[in-house]
Amino acid sequence: MNKSQLLQELNFKAVRSSGAGGQHVNKVSTKIDLSFSVEESNGLTVIEKERINDKIGHRLTKEGILQMQCDETRSQHRNKELAIARFLNLIEDALKVKKKRRKTKPSRSSIEKRLKHKKKNAQKKTNRGKPQMD
């Protein structure tokens, strides 16, 4: 993954934020729409593109475009920085390879401990029954 190449391929669009805010919100475009085409990216290898499609394919459009929005702050520049940070975190998480789980055998002491606990519980439950009259 080439971060500088990916950052050059990002497309930004400033839009008016929704919600309350009075006059200011009606005339200033602070919300940022970020879009990134995964399939047309030169900063990703074919394997990385496949991995992204597998992990976050549900977030991509039919054309293979990842879209994100940020309208947390009143500053367009701050929203742009937040959107870029979120985008990079999302891509990095999607490219991480999970470690394969190795099967392990329970230790002898853990098996014995489990069996002792089972016997103790069984004895406890038999003691709860009615006593036998001889």
From TrEMBL:
Q: Where is this region: Disordered?
A: 98-134
Q: Which residues form the Prokaryotic-type class I peptide chain release factors domain?
A: 16-32
EC class name: hydrolase
Listed GO MF terms: peptidyl-tRNA hydrolase activity; ribosome binding; translation release factor activity
PROSITE patterns on file:
RF_PROK_I
Q: What is its EC number?
A: 3.1.1.29
Question: Source organism's superkingdom?
Answer: Bacteria
Compositional bias (Basic residues): 114-128
InterPro entries, A to Z: Pep_chain_release_fac_I (IPR000352), Pep_chain_release_fac_I_sf (IPR045853)
Please name the GO terms of the biological process aspect recorded for this protein, alphabetically.
rescue of stalled ribosome
The record's keywords, sorted A to Z, are: Hydrolase
UniProt similarity note: Belongs to the prokaryotic/mitochondrial release factor family.
Name-wise, this protein is Aminoacyl-tRNA hydrolase
Q: Which species is this record about?
A: Zobellia amurskyensis
